[in-house]
From TrEMBL, chains A, B:
Keyword terms of this UniProt record: Cobalt, Hydrolase, Metal-binding, Zinc
Domain Peptidase M20 dimerisation: 202-311
InterPro entries reported in the protein's UniProt record: ArgE/DapE, Bact_exopeptidase_dim_dom, Peptidase_M20, Peptidase_M20_dimer, Peptidase_M20A
Pfam families named among the record's database cross-references: M20_dimer, Peptidase_M20
Stated name of the protein: Acetylornithine deacetylase
Top EC class, one word: hydrolase
EC code: 3.5.1.16
Length: 425, 425
């Protein structure tokens, strides 16, 4: 293995400048939802040059809607193709999916950017721009890993299937489409921004809306009414008790350093319509974290049942129960066994490249790994060079060195997982 | 006095049908803000027919703005005239203002009305329509009271000044304009809907907006943020403590049966912008009740000082103080001494007409009586035939009998207050 390692390392070093320019090219494509076609054609061309079989297709809303796991803000996907590159192995090896999304969130308020979001400018070893960390930088690690192996003349026994998907930011329809087309494998790695931590588990999540009722009255006689604003505080406190119960249950040491492994967050509130009236209705919107140890359905049911118990703590809710609505996006939780062989290989390669033990944690957010695991039966690990606290924020950047470190770790991991065809080297 | 009483009673009985038709005519005028000209011309014609000197003028925004008590959503008042009728006494008597507003609030959602809001239809002794109870029915009591006295051939020593004003629903600019023009008196009666209770005190009120800060974070790591929604509950509870303190201070027996004499109501809340983010800002809008025993300024200052104390109960507010904004409308508190001679006269006449003792209470809402008392130095009593729980609601109505009962009580009250010129009867 030693020689392979040196060969990979050298290739990455020699191709560093062209790789950075390629990333700049990707950042210059403003591939927000519905605008992914150009960046996908660049990726497809790259995968072809690398000698992969490339499949290119536009998502089919009609087909996708047949899956209960489909979620998107749209049903038409013109201009939003998926690209998958396949490098077939000689047979007898384990297969792997390497999955990355090319869609980006909008740049947002440009006045908050100190640097152009769509140039890929470099300062102090960092490349700046929307999508550098989430996750075109991580995608570059994937391309480099495969290219480095191929450039070293190595043949693998197992297939390498590289997903370049759309729609991750909007519910995962791209990865769902790839899975539905059969692009699955024995395991997967997704280089979402983990700051080079290894995430074998990913929290799922679901959005909800709670309608709290009150009774209107003139503010000068507020004692004749019932304030939905005050009642909404009762609901918030009640939900915090459930959050405690749900998190007390989690004993996986992966979560040891996380204060609240699967939070329930109330992110929006709105209610009442007049300063001098008692508010008769409040709407709260939130997100429940779904543990990798439970199903989406179980988590949802638990919140539903819990809200019904409000009547026990405040008789108001007996006559005026809150109503719970599930809406918007949904991210499935994902999980791979802590002692899965791919976890061992990835950890070992991390140590051999970086020199220290990797940090292994659980992810506080969902990724397409939930769909790969649960729908595609492809257990997934999240491990990438970006940092999640830059994702979706102004002045997003990625540390360039980490892209190459991750590429090297992934190349060695893929080689061991998929198994080298001895005759090839 | 006995003969006068019989004469007034008989006149009201004989003129009942035409009075009801006149009220229907007033209800048919949709005199919402900016649309009061036609109804005022009907009133002005009525006052002229009754032999009053009539003054008619459009409000002057430039003049009004010179007063610190001016509040309106507009500064131009084309099409919104004030009307004042004056019946000069022979001299030596106490003067009285009889004040009523002709502006109405909009009918609102018409689907919630079971009957037309602008016809003045009568069913089971009630006239239905927007403005019946608030307060064209009460205004009719005023016209009838004066007309009945005049029709009985009585002359008074003191002046009777009848205000038919605009803008009560929008901050009181109509009454302010009348006061600024010198239409003041020794006391006033306003037949706002009190359900024939006598209100010697009226709660003032002021609107406020509180900005509560949080710190944003991804909902999946909500422990890294500070929820402005949770902090707003702390603010609501803190304000309730102040409300207790302010109400514990009130020992006037008038408030004995009122659970919260001067409430602080939080009527609106809005905050956060994403279900899966920790809310970093919440805005709450509310109304503070101002006791007749305090000034508007003292009440406002007390809330300001109280909110500064949030830092003592939660260190978050030390670094992130809430901000308090005063905005929108403002109603001055009003008050007349419980043993003011007009209170005695009105109570006695109530008993002589109705046969029972009147209920004397404090009003939970402000009226133009605050401006009359504080700016016009004209202590005011609120006493009228409508019911406040119908005001501003769909299917607003007034009990017709009560209009005539109030008219009779007011006629007798005015005669005694202003003093009959003996030679006239």
């Amino acid at each position: 293995m030693k020689d392979y390692k040196a060969s990979i390392h050298t290739w990455l070093k020699e191709n560093r400048e062209s790789a950075i320019q390629f990333l700049q090219q990707l950042i210059q494509e403003q591939s927000t939802q519905g605008n992914e076609e150009t960046v996908q054609s660049i990726v497809a061309e790259k995968l072809k040059q690398m000698g992969m079989e490339v499949e290119w297709w536009e998502l089919n809303g009609e087909e996708l809607k047949k899956s209960p796991y489909f979620y998107s803000s749209r049903e038409e996907f013109q201009g939003s193709p998926n690209v998958v590159g396949v490098w077939r192995g000689s047979g007898g090896g384990r297969t792997i999916v390497l999955n990355g999304h090319v869609d980006i969130v909008p740049a947002g308020d440009l006045t908050q950017w100190n640097i152009s979001p769509f140039k890929g400018e470099i300062m102090d070893g960092k490349m700046y721009g929307r999508g550098t960390t989430d996750m075109k930088g991580g995608n570059l690690s994937l391309y480099l890993a495969v290219e480095a192996i191929k450039a070293s003349g190595i043949e693998l026994k197992g297939d390498v299937i590289l997903h370049s998907v759309v729609e991750e930011e909007s519910g995962g329809a791209g990865t769902l489409a790839a899975v539905m087309k059969g692009f699955k494998a024995d395991a997967a790695i997704i280089p979402e921004p983990t700051n080079m931590k290894i995430f074998p588990k990913q929290q799922g999540s679901k959005w909800f809306r709670i309608h709290v009722k009150g009774r209107s009255a003139h503010g000068g006689m507020r004692y004749l009414g019932v304030s939905a604003i005050e009642k909404s505080s009762v609901v918030v406190e009640h939900i915090k008790v459930l959050e405690n119960l749900r998190n007390d249950r989690i004993d996986d040491p992966l979560y040891a350093n996380i204060p609240i492994p699967v939070p329930i967050n109330i992110g929006r509130i709105e209610g009442g319509d007049w300063p001098s009236s008692v508010a008769d209705a409040v709407i709260m919107e939130g997100r429940i974290g779904i543990s990798p140890e439970e199903t989406m359905e179980d988590g949802q049911k638990e919140l539903e049942d819990w809200l019904a118990k409000l009547a026990d703590i405040d008789p108001w809710f007996k006559e005026n129960p809150v109503t719970l609505e599930w809406y918007g996006a949904r991210w499935l939780p994902g999980s791979i066994d802590n002692d899965h062989p791919l976890m061992d290989i990835l950890s070992e390669k991390y140590k051999s490249v970086i020199g220290t033990q990797p940090v292994i944690e659980a992810s506080p957010w969902g990724t397409d790994g939930g769909l790969l695991s649960q729908v595609g039966n492809t257990p997934s690990i999240i491990f990438g060079p970006g940092t999640s606290n830059m994702a979706h924020f102004p002045n997003e950047y990625i540390e360039i060195d980490k892209i190459f470190e991750v590429a090297e770790i992934l190349a060695l991991t893929v080689m061991e997982w998929c198994c080298i065809q001895e005759s090839s080297y």
